C-alpha cells in the first residue's frame, strides 16, 4: 500500500481540486490556505511600505504570493515557483440559451486544447464567477459552484454513426452544446439558475465568466490505489504543491535564505496573453514593488533578479503504454518515479544545465527522485510559463512537472507519490541552504 506521507499529501490535493472547479476557485482555495498560515492579502491601492512576512495579491484567476523574512535585505534574491490555475474545458457563451429539435441547450465555447470525446456523456455542473452590480457603481464579484448534474453532452449512438470508433473528429461547432431540459429555449433561464445558486438577483448580474466541470469527485485508482484520478490535475497538482511549499517555507523552523514566491497565472492554456497571464507584467511589477516597499533601489531590484531562480511547474507526459512510439525512446517517464525535468533545445522549455543542476541538488536534499523528459522531436511540445518568465525577468528557469496520462482530458491520471515529491523539492528550493 502507499506510504502514509504520500497519501496524506494527495488526500489534501484531492480536497483542493474538489473545491476548485474554476481558476477563480483555485485562487480562493489557495488564498484560504495562505491566510490560515498567517499570510495577508495586499491591495494594489494600499501602501506596501515596510510589509514583511507572508503576503499575497490576487487578481481574478491569478495569485502572486511571497514571504519576506524579518530583516531581509531589499536585494535578497527570489526563489519563484510558476504555475497556472486554468484547465482546458467548455466555457459558457455570453448569450447561452439555445436549443433545437425540442431540446433546451446551453451554448459553449472550447477553451484550450480539449479532447472533446472525454467530455461526452458526463454529468456536468457549472462554476466560475459573476460580476454584480455593486454600491456606488463599483462592480462586485461572487463565486458560484453548482456541483449538480445539470448538463450533458450526449454522444451519438453507434447505431447512427458506425464510424465513431474510427477516430472521426467531432464537429467543433455543432455537436458540443450540452442539453439540460426539454422544450424551446428560454432567454435568461441559465442566468436565473446560476444567480439563484449564488444567492443573487439575476437583475444584478452584469457579466460572468462561467464554465462547465465534471462533477465526478477525484479519487484513487489501481491495484494498490497507486494512481490519482481527477479533473484539472493539469495544473492544480502544481498549484497545490506550490502553496504547500510556500507555507512550509514560511512556517518552518529555518527562515528562508531567499524570498520564496508563488506565481499562479491564468490563461496558460491559451497562451498566457492576458492581464493575469505569464506574458503580462503582473509578476514583474509585484516583485519590483515589494523591493521598493522595503526601501530598495533599482540596484537592489537588479541584484534580487540576478540571484533569482524560477521553477516553472506544469504537468508532464508519462510514457503511454498503448502509444509508446509517440515518445522519445530514451526518455519515458513513469508515474511515481518523481517529477520530470523538461528539456527542449529550441526553448519551448526554458531549462538549461544550470537550472537542471539547481533542481537536482534540491531533489537530493529532499530525498526525492526525479526523471528526465524530452519530447519526441516529431511531436510539438512546450509550455508558456517557463519561457515567458525567463525571457521577461531574465532569470535562470527550469521547467518541471509531474508525469501523467490523459492530459487535458476531463479526467486525468498521475502517480500518488509524485505530487508529494514535487512539493518536497519546491520547499527545499524555497528555503535554500
Key terms:
five-stranded mixed β-sheet, alpha/beta, Aminopeptidase, nine-stranded mixed β-sheet, 9 helices, Aminopeptidase i, Domain 2, 433 residues, 2 domains
Number of domains: 2
According to CATH, what is the class of the largest domain?
Answer: Alpha Beta
How many strands, what sense, and barrel or not for the largest sheet?
9 strands, mixed
CATH topology label of the largest domain: Aminopeptidase
**Strands side by side in the biggest sheet:** 1-2-3-13-4-14-18-16-17
- CATH 2nd-level architecture of the largest domain: 3-Layer(aba) Sandwich
Oligomerization state of this entry? single chain
Instruction: Report the count of strand segments.
Output: 20
Give the DSSP E fraction (strand runs of 2 or more residues).
25-35%
User: In DSSP terms, counting alpha (H) and pi (I) runs of 4 or more, how many helices?
Assistant: 9
Residue windows where pLDDT falls under 50 for at least 5 positions: none
Whole-angstrom Rg: 22 Å
Q: Can you give the helix content as a percent range?
A: 25-40%
Summarize, please.
With 433 residues, the protein is an alpha/beta fold. The chain is 27% helix and 28% strand.
What does this structure look like?
- With 433 residues, the chain is of the alpha/beta class.
- It has 2 domains: 4-87 and 231-431, Aminopeptidase; 89-214, Aminopeptidase i, Domain 2.
- The protein contains 9 helices and 20 strands.
- It has helices at residues 4-18, 23-36, 189-197, 233-251, 282-293, 298-306, 353-366, 385-393, 418-431; strands spanning 40-41, 53-59, 62-68, 78-84, 89-100, 103-111, 124-132, 140-151, 179-182, 205-214, 219-221, 227-230, 259-265, 309-313, 316-317, 340-343, 371-374, 396-401, 403-405, 412-415.
- The strands form 4 sheets. A 9-stranded mixed β-sheet has the order 1-2-3-13-4-14-18-16-17, with helices on both faces. A 5-stranded mixed β-sheet has the order 11-12-20-19-15.
- Helix 4 (233-251) crosses helix 9.
- The radius of gyration is 22 Å and the shape is globular.
- The two termini are 33 Å apart.
- The mean pLDDT is 94.
